[in-house]
Amino acid sequence: MLLYIHGFNSSSLSDKSQVLKHWLESRNRAQEWLSPDLPNRPAEAIDLLAGLIESAPTPPKLIGSSLGGFYATHLVARFGLKAALINPAVHPALLLRPLAGTTQQYWHSDGSYQFTQAHLDELDALDQLAPANPENMLLMLENGDKTLDWRDATAYYRKSHQLVFQGGNHGFTHFHDVLDLIDRF
């Protein structure tokens, strides 16, 4: 099973989630795709993901993008799973602090919500000074990402396996090209 964990304000309809779904379908493995729409509250998102992991027939491999990479890092520490991290957010409470008090729009629906200090507190509670089980993580970055600084991730995940691609963007243009590698990791 491949559990795709989407990023901030995204959903299972994200491009990478759908590429993964179609990639698995083309290999007669559609039943291995799992990509839940996460609640905007970090604690609720982690509870949902932990429940899916605990009820899975076999331990899933995680694929986390952006904030989903941060969540995957927490879940690797908690469950000892393997994870591919795509342009992951490092210390997202610090990154998202300027958004406190703002209305956030979801990417794939008309819904919105208020981003509050409670969201930041929950992110802080999940953060780690250094990732646990770094050997279980495959970090994949594109240095053309204008949303997150790729150098923060290379430093934070310095003991993890790393691939840094030239150019690209936060959406990670090489995703389809690395699916076989993620599958074998």
Automatic annotation (TrEMBL):
Q: Which InterPro entries match?
A: AB_hydrolase_fold, UPF0227/Esterase_YqiA
Signal peptide feature range: none
**What Pfam families does the record point to?**
UPF0227 (PF05728)
* Protein name, per record: Esterase
